[in-house]
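Let's practice the habit of predicting before peeking. Look at the sequence and jot down your guess about where helices and strands might fall. Then scroll down.
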Amino acid sequence: MKKILLSVLFLCSGIANGQYASTIFVTLNDGMEQAYLDIEMLWQAYHEETVKQGLKSGWSVWKIDPAGYDDKIEASRTPDYLIIESYPTMEAMEKQNASYTTEGFEAIVNTIKRKFRGKISSRKIDRMLAKDVNKERRTYVHQMLAQTPFTGGDLKPGEKMVLAPMQQLKDDYEQYETAFYQKVFANNVMKGNHRWWAFTKIIDRSENAINNTTHAAWNIGIEGKSMDMPQDFASQKIFEITSEARKMYNPITLELVYTVQ
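Done guessing? Here is the structure:
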């Protein structure tokens, strides 16, 4: 699987309103996928509360499709899911991260138990949360640099998004995306050919994270529609020289499982 897949960022669950996001790539222990999904189902109730209170812009869990990846990362580290938490400010993100302590976790569990009262027993919730599902987690922090309007309403479980991880090669690379490609994608969004595009920059990562990617483009297309790309001379030249400004890795397809937005 490709190293690049860990370079990614936040998504639509709040990304249209969030300027920063924490993304966690989750590699599961063998045979623990359903137990993991059950845990995230519980956590969804907590994140609903934090979004409602304005503590974050959104939260979502995405299943990662490994198809098409190059084998550039040990198979044992291949991630299964991506968790995205988006925030309106860096301060909001730091405040939320600071709450993920032992005492903070106890408060979170109490919130979950309150939300599921009468549906799932307190004892069962404790057993579900205690399961050792994670082999590894790698965290990245992204900053939004540019995006188009987000169209088509809120995302729903089962919908897909494509991440295009990239590595900056020249100092002026960001200008290619923000001054040219944003307009190309915005034009297609206005024409109804595309649903959403965003361009983000990785500004921090955990010690175990992979370091080769620096930026990412996020795309949500519309079934049956194709992009209308400009054919004029200047645009064609920009297309040609973009590869000199950045290295693009294989796209990654994500399927939405849980979302709070």
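How did you do? The chain has one domain: 3-260.
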